[in-house]
Specification:
mainly alpha, 211 residues, two-stranded parallel ribbon
Amino acid sequence: MSVRFGQQPLHPSSLSITKRLIDILGAIIGLLITAIITIPIAILTIISNPGPIFYSQVRCGLNGKQFRIWKFRSMVVNADKMKHLVKNQAQGHIFKSVNDPRITPIGKFLRCTSLDEFPQFWNVLLGDMSLVGTRPPTPDEVIHYAPHHWQRLRVKPGMTGEWQTKGRSNIKDFETIVQMDLDYQRKWSITYDLNLILKTVWVVIKKSGAC
């Protein structure tokens, strides 16, 4: 079941064939890289904390439609059940914690390098996500949204976006994230998407805001 405030007019980016073709091409390249790095990551993950290699979680996408997101597991097994034990250091309808004790040693490395997010290329290929868009929220976040917060869900969630290139984990105010998402919608073009992708590569290389 989807968590919805109401059907909204879709943003032009969600209807762009060119954007979708770029997503498909990027997803195929990303999945090829994912296939290469999966085995070493799997070995290190099992050594660090035995359990599943991949982690999945229900998120809300375009107009609140729910889908299952995939990542390489960076936390201990059953970390979701331990969430209430960790202090939320963010403001608003997001959850962030500096030095979260649930993160494993290999998980910290995966997050710092953004390698944990590579399985999301599968979500992009399926069409639930885009290479560039908004941060995909969880249903328990969306259920508390005010009407203006729903505007950020007029576009598909992305593997990267304004938040990724302008602070990542350093941004702890939900209203700031909402503003960034709305700015993205106003600025959107294929050229702007490509620019954000290039900026993301640079941010990841520098590990800015990820650790």
